[in-house]
Design brief:
- Helix content is 51%, strand content 14%.
- The longest helix has 16 residues.
- It has one domain: P-loop containing nucleotide triphosphate hydrolases (Rossmann fold, 3-Layer(aba) Sandwich).
- The strands form 2 sheets. The chain has a 5-stranded parallel β-sheet.
- The two termini are 29 Å apart.
- It is α/β, with parallel strands linked by helices.
- Helix 1 crosses helix 9, helix 2 packs parallel to helix 9 and helix 7 packs across helix 8.
- The chain has 9 helices and 7 strands; from the N terminus they run αβαβαββαβαβαααβα.
- This is AAA family ATPase.
- It comes from Rhizobium tubonense.
Length: 188
């Protein structure tokens, strides 16, 4: 996994990409940044949660149906796909031109999740499926708290297995995100 791409090179790769995968822990700012990139580059926004994972009432979509929907979407020529889900890297990575890994510190992600819940509790966010109002539970907080320890190794393994030649750019601070967006603005 190549994570040593500098922000200038990343902006250039992103600007020329037709298919961008944005991954990372919940609450890190993936969706906010993804929407900004889509706006700047006129890319269709695809949310893994909204478009594939969830049915109304927080019901998981059956895996076979989920994978069929993902396969159809990744076959399209242009998209930005927001969501981690390493179990579907086999479908998504071979079609991605670049991966942006929003890899914020644990406390930034926790703050992001709590802030999001305060803002949206009981209402549906843009990136969430209809009939899935914002909520919070201990299982989800544990997932966020343990992301780097438990989930990041799966992400790294999936990137190496299914996208060894796909450039991966890691953003580890809000300043990194701002720098990337500023460079994309400067090229517009």
């Amino acid at each position: 996994m190549n994570s040593e791409i500098d922000v200038g090179d990343a902006a250039s790769l992103i600007r020329s990409a037709n298919r961008i995968l944005v991954i990372g822990c919940s609450g890190g700012g993936k969706t906010t940044m993804s929407l900004q990139i889509c706006k700047r580059l006129a890319l269709p926004f695809v949310s893994m949660d909204r478009d594939f994972f969830w049915l109304p009432g927080w019901v998981n979509r059956p895996k076979t149906e989920e994978r069929a929907l993902i396969a159809a979407k990744v076959a399209e020529e242009r998209w930005l796909m927001d969501g981690t889900g390493p179990s579907t890297f086999d479908l998504r990575l071979p079609r991605a031109d670049v991966v942006i890994w929003v890899r914020m510190p644990r406390m930034v992600c926790m703050w992001g999740v709590i802030s999001r819940v305060v803002k949206w509790y009981g209402h549906e966010r843009l990136a969430m499926a209809p009939g899935c109002p914002e909520r919070l539970d201990w299982q989800f907080l544990r997932y966020v708290w343990n992301f780097e320890q438990k989930e990041a190794p799966k992400v790294v393994a999936g990137l190496e297995q299914h996208g060894p030649d796909v450039p991966v750019f890691q953003l580890k601070t809000r300043r990194d995100i701002r720098a990337l967006l500023d460079l994309l603005d400067a090229s517009a």
